[in-house]
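for the writeup, i need someone to sanity check this before i put it in the appendix. the sequnce is what the collaborator sent (i think, or maybe the updated version? ugh). structure was predicted straight from it, no edits. if anything looks off just tell me and ill rerun, i have time this weekend
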Amino acid sequence: MRCGTADDAPVDAGKSTNEVRSFGDLQLGDRVPSFYVRAVTGPHANKSVCYVCRYLDRPVAMIVVRSFSPGLTELLRGIDTVVDESRSVGLRSFVVFVAPTNPPDADSRTLSARVQTLGFDEKLSIPLTVAAAFDDAATRPGSRPADVTVVLYRRQQVVTTVGMRRDDLTKPKIRDLLERLRRLPDEP
């Protein structure tokens, strides 16, 4: 598979033996599929980019946000700090804000403005992006996807995935995730 082409799609590119339909489905050892997002902040702002392709085999923290939760800002600031401290060993990160499908007026333009404001107000250097809504309801009928999903991966293979509801994003949970992220570049 060649990353970085328009033919790359989240559900088709680089699947492991487990079929990945959503980020909530990613399991330990799964290959992270390539996918395009609209960059809101950073050097690629206002462009379509595949960060999975850009970061290739580096250790990466991918954060998928479906709703602005209490503790989200603290998590993003913490990840930004850890990545900045570990940039020399290749650690990278990016955040994907998923455009809501309800209410109908909550489109990606509204979300992009909110994401851009968050990045500016918090002085985040982590790339903030927006993607179209993923069809998580089809994969787990009767359940809704996590509000925030943190996927840590190396060489495009999932090392850790943690999905959290709004109230799960507590200080102890954030500290644990940041410790896992600090260890990511040293894991085999």
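The chain has one domain: 23-186. The longest helix spans residues 108-122.
thx in advance!!
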